[in-house]
Specification:
This protein has 296 residues and is of the alpha/beta class. It has a domain of 206 residues: Aldolase class I (TIM Barrel, Alpha-Beta Barrel). It has 12 helices and 10 strands. The strands form 2 sheets. Strands 1-4-5-6-7-8-9-10 form an 8-stranded parallel barrel, surrounded by 5 helices. It has a two-stranded antiparallel sheet with strand order 2-3. Helix 4 runs parallel beside helix 6. The longest helix is centred in the C-terminal third of the chain and has 17 residues. The protein is globular and about 50 Å long.
Length: 296
């Protein structure tokens, strides 16, 4: 299927405090995104640290998100797992909680075959009625959705697209060619947002938009309007910040950046740790160079 969403989707941080999820901070983050023009919010994706959350916490976050967003943006819940049965169960629960769509990462650690990837996505997609976006991030999972496999997966009726974070533009171009008109391509790598949009990407699923939602949306709109010169100029300004958001594993720098701009991102949960002091310094410098008014 095509057309589930076009524009920008923020892969949301989950702010924690000593009691658990900091819902006051999370609510402010949601309002910041909506004010910035973000079209969809990804809740409990990798950036949201669901691997270190309890099932109760995840249910509370889903319930709160639906109530807080209240139809003002599309809601996509992460429901991937390395067990197909668990991914199916999580997807059904997310649908019941009010998700508009799902993001399902490839099964990690098991390292299934390309045939296994197809069967996994087929089982998940057929278990729900809402759109499903595949998530390809082999650096984290050890599994890569090859273009021919994605072409096959795209035939499943409610597969809405693929979030591509393989980092290989040659592969991404071939995937785009094979799925064009069948499902949508989304950038899952902020460094590649512009080239992926330029080859027909329908939108961005962004970490950087936690911090720069308005600018991320503006860059998308420049490309949509055919103004590549303005898009390049804005992306050039954003790239130093984007680079700093990935000096350590996501979402460590993104949480620190949220703290720096007054959104109270808190700290990651172990085994992730707080951003190293030197990286915190260079992150702050990059944010100040982009716009001193961001810092609190």
């Amino acid at each position: 299927m095509v057309g589930f969403f076009r524009g920008t989707m923020t892969a949301m941080i989950t702010p924690f405090n000593e009691q658990g999820v900091n819902f006051d901070a999370f609510g402010r983050m949601i309002e910041y995104q909506i004010a910035g023009g973000t079209d969809a919010l990804l809740i409990l994706g990798t950036t949201g640290e669901p691997a270190t959350m309890t099932e109760t916490e995840k249910e509370e976050v889903m319930r709160y998100s639906v109530q807080k967003i209240a139809g003002r943006a599309k809601i996509v819940f992460g429901s991937g797992a390395n067990s197909t049965q668990k991914a199916v169960e999580a997807s059904k629960k997310a649908e019941a909680m009010g998700a508009d769509g799902l993001l399902v990462v490839t099964p990690y650690y098991n390292k299934c075959t390309q045939g296994g990837l197809y069967e996994h996505y087929k089982a998940v997609a057929e278990s729900v009625k809402i759109p499903v976006i595949c998530y390809n991030v082999p650096a984290r999972t050890g599994v890569n959705i090859l273009p021919a496999t994605m072409e096959r997966i795209a035939q499943i009726p409610n597969i809405a697209g693929i979030k591509e974070a393989c980092g290989n533009m040659e592969q991404i171009c071939e995937t785009a060619r094979r799925i064009r008109g069948k499902c949508d391509l989304y950038s899952g790598d902020d460094n590649l947002n512009l080239p992926i949009l330029a080859i027909g990407g329908a939108g961005l699923i962004s970490v950087a938009s936690n911090i720069l939602p308005r600018e991320t949306k503006q860059m998308y709109e420049y490309v949509a309007a055919g103004d590549l010169a303005a898009a390049n100029e804005l992306q050039d300004r954003m790239l130093p910040v984007i680079d700093q958001l990935f000096t350590e594993v996501n979402p460590i720098p993104a949480k620190e950046a949220a703290n720096l701009i007054g959104l109270d991102g808190g700290v990651p949960r172990l085994p992730l740790t707080r951003l190293e002091p030197e990286h915190a310094r260079t992150l702050k410098e990059a944010l100040a160079a982009f716009d001193k008014a961001l810092l609190h």
